[in-house]
Amino acid sequence: MHTHALAEYMKCIYRGQWQCAGDLMLSSANKLAKTGADFLICPDNTIHQAFAYVEARSPLPWLHIAEVVAAEAAERGFRRLGLTGTRSLVESEVYPEKLAARGLDYVRPNTAEREKINRIILDELVYGIFKPETVAYFQQVIGRMKDEGCDAVVLGCTEIPLIMNDSNSPLPTLDSTRLLARAALRRAVEPAATPA
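The chain above was modelled as a monomer; its predicted structure follows.
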């Protein structure tokens, strides 16, 4: 496991400099390759916007978080997913591309919802602030997505599962971080003869 400080990534993200974020990811990838890692994961959804700068130059293969979520959604028979996460993530093509590749549809939060969810993530959840009204707001947004025909919701941020899960969500949840961790475990214990 290796990561640069979140503050370093955020400098790149706030400036919209995804190649800069990709360079940080590659720095970690190179260090991990030297330690003998077989493959790589990045549990941060937003940073996957830098993946295009990373994949071809990476010394090792990666499991892509949105591919893992899309595979799980398809396996469970979901057809239309609500997306939640930082504003930058839900406005990007990180999830739409991987969902479309599996024939899945999606709904993004509207502009006002994106702004509020982004503020909640960055000003509350990353600091361990969990308010009942925040849970209620997520329930409201997810309920609207359900009304728009969604049959599951992607928790596309490491912090969202701290307040939302299957027991309090109007829709079944796809916890991207947990799904990626499970996929990584499966990959790590594959027999050596299994192709990557």
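The mean pLDDT is 95.
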